[in-house]
């Protein structure tokens, strides 16, 4: 046997072993991430060592996962930011309640416009943790001053979530007892007419493709979100078909700047002779959608109360850049961005006896739009704050505007 052959064999063996060890480390890391995503372990550590014992292989490896479980019952207290709304959230959770990563959670939320509490049960499919079922019981009370409306929902829901290719899919059934009332004595007759009790039973489907590197202030990637809801076929006195979508594209440019484009749209079709409810319609306007307009203060209205619309679209174009002169670069200053924006959209009701061309023509009429610039602050991956100087254009009769400085806080922005 030649020396050259021995050298080549030794190199091949060492190369094969290195590849084997790297593969074991990679697979162990993936398994660790899956265990952490279950939400039942406080800490997961991986120990890789050579095999020992009577059954040990000559070149085998032992992989040991050392875990520290969460307590049987955990509590939490935190604050949340919604669409221009803040809330305090108290939670109580029983992780791994049945021994297979099931969770039982109680949550109470008190906010500036909404108060809610609910009980939910979550169960993942063994071996396929991305597939899961959740059952929820809840009560939500919200105040909507732009409509002089108060709404209380008491409901139950069941959800099935699962991945398909690069998408995340969710199927949901929801049954809600809704109670609508007037928020003020000055509420319009149109709002008073909607007051009372109703039952909604609906089936819905949502599909999400998200390749963004961040959901709050992305620098690259895209988002496609499609949602459909069908009410009335499983009971209740609300009957409609509701479709809406969201598209977002982000592209990194020169000098650390980012160009972002967004498009939203939706359509609400009543089924039968009964008109749609004010609680199911779309609303538009405000610092998180069409900037330069007051919160949800566009479109159909009666005596100053905004009634929502059955069709809408909204588009946004943004250019995000670093702060001038880059103060705090590499630290706190990286949380801030300057942005220039252009927003446009429309919200209206359609005559469904007319054809699609008439519908598109109406959506293209009386377009509201605005432009301006401002400062964006990213609060981790939780929310973002905006302080903008807005110039509203295309203002229609009855619209409320916010000409000048406008503040916005939330997690979903146009």
TrEMBL record:
Superkingdom to which the source organism belongs: Eukaryota
Keywords for this protein: Membrane, Mitochondrion, Mitochondrion outer membrane, Transmembrane, Transmembrane beta strand
Pfam families to which the protein is assigned, alphabetical: Omp85
GO CC entries: mitochondrial outer membrane
Span of domain Bacterial surface antigen (D15): 96-413
Keyword Cytoplasm: no
Annotated GO biological process: mitochondrial respiratory chain complex assembly; protein insertion into mitochondrial outer membrane
Membrane topology: Multi-pass membrane protein
Localisation per UniProt entry: Mitochondrion outer membrane
Family membership: Belongs to the SAM50/omp85 family.
Name this protein carries in UniProt: SAMM50 sorting and assembly machinery component
